[in-house]
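User: Can you recover a sequence for this backbone? Please restate the input before giving your answer.

Assistant: Of course. Working from this structure:
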């Protein structure tokens, strides 16, 4: 199901047969360097199923990002479930050959507009490895505010915490 589109991109819900394309992303050590490392095909099938179920249960999830002209899969962008005081957590992972072309910034912008207008989400959080300069830029470019560092038990380090308040029309 198509979720939204931007100037160059289409975002649609994930499907089980996206696994091959996703392995270029979630199966890549380089892409997943700051996101818990690459997974095996079995692990990523479970991740994929998790996002498919999340879409059914919550009405939002992470989405496949496709180039409008070439129809190539560029990445994944969207949301993880509510976390602490946040309605959702923004995420984005793009295949290495497609870095540096503004796709992540554009996809994040499209997801955030969709979250605001169609999902009614209000507060979005994002948590970034301090060494992940590219990811920090995506957040800053989309209006996120740095609120401080926080210890994460799963990564065993301080992560940078960002948040964005999405105002609803009329507020
Ligand atoms: C983070 C990631 C999504 C960025 O994707 P991208 O499509 O290359 O980013 P964009 O081209 O939209 O760049 C957005 C901004 O960040 C800047 N940027 C991109 N990569 C950068 C880098 N390595 N160092 C510094 N700035 C960088 C761009 O110059 C751009 O800024 P500008 O608008 O001022 O020119 C991509 O590198 C990626 O998939 N990384 C691995 C997964 C990941 O770390 N995800 C996030 C946390 S889990």
């Amino acid at each position: 199901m198509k979720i939204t589109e931007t100037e160059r991109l289409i975002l649609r819900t994930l499907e089980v047969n996206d696994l091959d394309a996703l392995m270029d992303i979630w199966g890549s050590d380089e892409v997943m360097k700051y996101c818990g490392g690459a997974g095996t095909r079995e692990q990523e099938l479970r991740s994929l199923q998790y996002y498919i179920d999340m879409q059914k249960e919550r009405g939002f999830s992470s989405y496949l990002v496709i180039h409008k002209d070439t129809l190539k899969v560029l990445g994944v962008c969207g949301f993880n479930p509510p976390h602490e005081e946040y309605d959702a957590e923004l995420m984005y992972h793009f295949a290495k050959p497609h870095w540096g072309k503004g796709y992540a910034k554009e996809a994040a912008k499209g997801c955030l507009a969709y979250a605001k207008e169609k999902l009614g989400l209000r507060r979005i959080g994002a948590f970034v490895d301090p060494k992940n300069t590219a990811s920090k830029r995506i957040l800053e470019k989309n209006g996120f505010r740095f609120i401080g560092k926080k210890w994460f038990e799963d990564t065993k380090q301080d992560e940078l915490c960002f948040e964005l308040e999405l105002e609803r029309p009329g507020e």
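That completes the design. Residues 2-165 form a domain with the Aminopeptidase fold (CATH 3.40.630.30).
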